[in-house]
């Protein structure tokens, strides 16, 4: 999951949440067996720069999507991976579209 206000959330093998909500790193998968599926949060400032031409999904949510003809298709509601590529869910004018996030040709 991505939350632009709080940072990026997701699940990581080897991490768990204590009762206070702080993440603690485990040395192996056996030590984190009870935490499987737990949400892990990172502060935005703790994230590395994604690099040239790369983006965190949270940075793209809410951006307007315009096709090559200049038509506004809507705004990005969420991004997810289907195994082959990242996919944008774009909503606008009562329509929802799923568009692949691929490099420009």
Please characterize this protein's 3D structure.
With 105 residues, this protein is mainly beta. It has two domains: 2-46, no CATH class; 57-101, PRC-barrel domain (SH3 type barrels), CATH 2.30.30. The chain has one helix and nine strands; from the N terminus they run E-E-E-E-E-H-E-E-E-E. A hairpin with a 2-residue loop joins strand 8 and strand 9 (95-101). It is elongated and about 55 Å long. The protein starts with a strand and ends with a strand. The relative contact order is 0.16.
Task: Give a brief outline of the structure.
It is built from one helix and nine strands; from the N terminus they run βββββαββββ.
- How much helix, percentage-wise, in residues? under 10%
Q: Multimeric state of these chains? A: single chain
Overall mean pLDDT score? 75
Distance between the termini: 29 Å
Question: What count of helical segments does DSSP give?
Answer: 1
Widest sheet: strand order? 6-7-8-9
Query: Would you count the extended β strands for me?
Result: 9
Order of H and E elements = EEEEEHEEEE
Residues in β-strands, percent: 35-45%
Task: Characterize the largest beta sheet: strand count, sense, and whether it forms a barrel.
Answer: 4 strands, antiparallel
Shape: elongated
As for the number of domains, it is: 2
Can you tell me the residue ranges where pLDDT is under 50 for at least 5 consecutive residues? 1-23
Quickly give the structural class: mainly beta
Mind telling me the C-alpha Rg? 17 Å
